[in-house]
Amino acid sequence: MKERLQLNRNYDGMLNRAMRDKLERGECVDLSECKREEDGAYIVPPDVWQEDVDYCNAKTESWIFSVGREIRTGIIRAAHHNGYYQNPEYECLWLR
Predict the structure, then answer these.
(1) Measured between alpha carbons, how far is 48 from 76 in angstroms, rounded to an integer?
(2) Is-contact 41 78, C-beta < 8 A?
(3) What's the predicted TM-score (pTM) here?
(4) Which among 40, 83, 45, 38 has a CA at the least distance from the CA of 60?
(5) For residue range 50-62, what is the model confidence (pLDDT) as tens digits?
(6) At a CB cut-off of 8 Å and minimum separation 6, what does 19 contact?
């Protein structure tokens, strides 16, 4: 699925050059096609999650600030805030 989210994406029109460059080099994962919850959190499929990369929404050119795995359910969520850091209900997997 990771490849499906990033294949056939044209990042040439992006204003955020750092984000565009990271996406093109495979150093950033675009979550814009992931399912969203009412509070705006992204549901990150396990096959999309990876360490040592950045995360963003390339459509809005917004960086993701935290990724966490809900301890009770195992669901991985990502957000534009740091809400999964030091949250007792989540294992923080990644923090910008």
Answers:
(1) 10
(2) yes
(3) 0.85
(4) 40
(5) 999 999 999 999 9
(6) 28, 54, 56, 58, 61, 63
One-letter amino acid for residue 51 of the chain: E
Dihedral sign of CA atoms 60, 62, 64, 65 in order: negative
Number of domains in the chain: 1
Q: What mean pLDDT comes out for the span 25-34?
A: 95
What does 21-61 look like in DSSP terms, one character per residue?
Answer: HHHHHT-EEE-TTS-B-TTSPEE--TTT--SSSEEEETTTT
What per-residue confidence (pLDDT) applies to 1?
Answer: 47
Cα-Cα-Cα-Cα dihedral of 32, 69, 65, 14, to 10°?
A: -20
Mean pLDDT of the chain: 90
Domain of 67 in residue numbering reads as 2-95
